[in-house]
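Notes from the 1:1 (GR / supervisor)

We went over the backlog. Supervisor wanted to see one worked example end to end before approving the batch request, so GR pasted a single chain during the call. The sequence is below; no edits were made to it. Supervisor asked that the structure be written out right there so they could see what the output format looks like.
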Amino acid sequence: MTEPITGWIWGRNLRAFFELLSRYAGYAFDETDWKTVEAGMQDTDDEAPHGWYSYPLVGTSATLEVALAQAVGGEEVSVRVTGAGTPELQFRTDTLLSALASV
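Structure output shown during the call:
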């Protein structure tokens, strides 16, 4: 099993993160998925051990588990992705986190 890929992104980039990561996994992320993620994020807290929300992306090329939590008092969202089993998917996921933390 591979290590989780962790980082943070700006909250305003969360939908783009899911849409792109889903594409890499071969999953058709849609409006229903987004509404579910939005609702699940409401009471998250990245400083609380049980304050994270987890959403699966079960695609044709990968099954990813995305755990998310809002930073208390900030606009950042902490992210932990598990299941990126290939070097290419690990690289893409890490690059996506880096890019969406900077724009």
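Supervisor's comment: The chain has a mean pLDDT of 95.
Batch request approved.
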